[in-house]
Prior knowledge:
Layout: H1 7-10, H2 15-18, H3 24-38, E1 45-49, H4 55-62, E2 66-71, H5 74-83, E3 88-91, E4 103-108, H6 119-132, E5 133-144, E6 154-161, E7 164-173, E8 180-191, E9 202-211, H7 215-225, E10 228-233, E11 248-254
Parallel strand pairs: 1-2, 1-4, 2-3, 4-5
Antiparallel strand pairs: 5-11, 6-7, 7-8, 8-9, 10-11
Helix pairs in contact: 3-4
Amino acid sequence: MIPNGNLYTNLSAYYDLFCADVDYAGQCATTSRIFECFAQTDGRQYLDLACGTGAHIQIMQTLGFTATGLDNSTEMLAQAAKRCPDAAFVLSDMSAFETADRYDLITCFLYSIHYSHPVCALKQTLKRVYDALQPGGVFIFNAVDINGITNRHVVTSHAVAENSQLTFVSGWCYQGEGETMDLHLSITREPAKEPGITIQNDSWQDQHVMTAVVFTSLSAWLLSIGFESTFLEHDYDCLQPWNGSSFNVLVVACKPR
């Protein structure tokens, strides 16, 4: 049993199984639609922040984008490079990346924008994205309002790999005040049972500090940097304006020409 560790580093090979229920194709199709609606550039240079194993990048390339991925895990980037050998990859924290390139589209999905912690780092990430966009470019990301977080919201999924049953559990935890929320992750690996042999399960636990935000503050930060932002309902099937009461949104932040 391994009680603690960075799952994104130590178990990067399992990450795609962990995210097996994520509709990457649907997210990318919606991203392309939003880009066509909001972008005012002529190019299709694309940067994916917290790109992980490159699942979004792989699909966006098929949609005609020239892709670059950024992540702070060498192990995750190694997986992404295998998946997308024609893409470029950058090892960096989101709040610290510097580039002379300018992008028409930048994304950050799976609520990864919240990994920029604390608030000052999140604001720095937004500023670096603004600087990295072409005039008329678009930044698309999803976010959760802390008022919608409950400590009862836990997601569990299962997969089979290497003759073992894998159980993945994730959930946010918020103490009710402040700018910090935690993401708790765990993986349990149960090898196939063999008659007469006792096999011990393996278990990994991990905890990530994330930034808690409210949408009114997020909107104000984007405006102060120079973005023109639109909040959409977190719906990958239909583009519709945020209703003002749900706690998950797709944010479309445009850099004016």
